[in-house]
Amino acid sequence: MLMNGVPVGGLSHPLEWMVKTMPDIAVLIKRVPDTIAKIIVVDGTIDLSGVKWIISPYDEYAIESALQHREATGGSVTAITLGNADCDKTLKDAKALGCDELVRLWQDGWESLDSNGVQSILAGAISDLGSEIVYCGKAAADTNAGSTGPGVAEKLGWASISNVVSVSFEEGGVEALVPVAGGQAKVGINFPCLLTIDKGPNEPRRPNVRGIMMARKAEVNLKGGQAPAATISVISKSTPPAKPPGKTYHGAENVPAVVQALRDEANVI
Amino acid sequence: MDFAESDEQQMIRKLVRDWAEEVLPPTISKRDDEQIAPSKEWKQFCEMGLQGVTIPEEFGGNPVDDISESIIIEELARVDPSLSVMFCVHVGLCAKTIVLHGNQQQKETYLPRLAAGEVGAYSLSEAGAGTDAAAMVCKAKLSEDGSHYLLNGEKMWVTNGEQAEIYILFAKDVDHPEYGVKKHGGTTAFIIERGFEGFEVGKKEDKLGIRSSDTCTLILTDCKVPVENVLKSPGSGFPIAMNALDNSRIGIAAQALGIAQGAFDCALKYSTERETFGVPIQRHQMITAYLADMATRISAARHLVYRASWAKQQHYEHGAPRHSLEASMAKLYAGDTAMWVADLAVQILGGYGYTKDFPVERFFRDAKVTQIYEGTQEVQRLVIVRNLP
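^ Those are the sequences you sent over. The predicted structure of the assembly is below.
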């Protein structure tokens, strides 16, 4: 066991300390519709049949942090997602970027799980894998809820830090830079822990062709999950109210009217 | 029959497209105006490992399937046809020729260097020997001690001429028994390094299009080439040259496809933004018809290019017949499509298309060369008819 990077307690084997300095890193990724996809609503629900799917953009930053962590300290990175076989492509995209292992979690009716259910399945898998640190995006691009990371940490009984923009890697823990009122704070945290990652100075890397060809051969480990029954249900969905049409003014004589509209209606001056 | 792109083909397309759209546009106009080769861009490009896609892993390469190779060329050409042809010659005419015809020592010497990003080139043509390649007059004479050849003459139209470190170059061995007997007699393929004594890069051509691609002459003055650098054997160069062109023709077809797609994408976008008579010009039936025909011809060209790429892979990996017919059909159709689509793209943009504010005038200039190099359209027709089943 490590405390602040220093081994504590008896070592059962001389190599244990070496081994323990190479953390098992997990990164949670989600398959979402491309953020530039045209969203079509049919009969009150979103028709996703023609949509292109991508890794949720904040999750790309999480992958980047996980890979940098491995590069700094060694260890291995396991990418985890929840979903059907279509999500294997998302995992393979992560493999092409450099993740070592791929795990897809599956449970019948996964699409109707509530946040509590999703968090339970993810937390269970992380426990089984023995991960010591988990990275995930601060929010998924589809639901934008931001509940998964903190929720998983709570289920695991781990400490977590949200909205991390930069991480430095220590033995036995990490230091994370997070925005606080009026500036940034550097927070130290020991393993086991979970970080949700925001867009930061480290742009996600591109894959290279070797990674792409390795991804082709990569195996996805399928694991079943057990989630509690949903306690949250969607009662109704509605589209935002239509935007009122814009107004057009012509000629210098309308300047007072424009100024008044900007002040009274648009509230911008 | 399966027409779907595989997962890795999709990933490679996305990788190259994202990279090309982000990295190339900021420098493209200046490079085109001033004929600056994309050396800096090439260094960045090599970080993705794509320069080694025709090189086996044991020599440091990252092999991909032949359709993926065409997709890379297409996606580069969609933004920058000059960088596209640089890649095409490096991986196809240079690296692939060494993979196919080099001995173990030549592969061990040169393939890791090409895989690491040193630029490759190919030099067959001369001032009086283009389409009629066998008319070359560049000569090679074995030294008295038999350790090296001395090459003399001037080569022309050498893509990557200025940037390359490694050249596949053809000259006639004057001591070969068939020299002067058969028209192509004695033609020998040499691997030449830029630093070889007596090797000099000559004039850089001032061209209509692909102006960021460095097209040069090479001057050989008693250029000393070790005998170990002969590919296969003296006098066996002509089939190597022709075979290499079958392969690179597909690359140029893919380049033409990318040019057509790039010009089309620009015209399509413009047609939705530009309004005349109160509606976007796309709503005018003449423009609608242009766009439909452009999209259809591009799709047809794409099928020919990918099918030729597939036939090439079948030939090398499964002993299927040579892909000369498919390669020439793809090059003929895609080259004409590039020119035709680029012409209409300029037309759709009207006066704006005629200026350097939009890329279609560059695609228009770049397209023309795809009807000329790697065998003119006239030569493709000869090859097609001679290879009809």
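The helical segments of chain A are 16-20, 57-73, 88-97, 115-129, 148-156, 209-217, 255-264. The longest strand of chain A covers residues 173-180.

Shout if you want it in another format.
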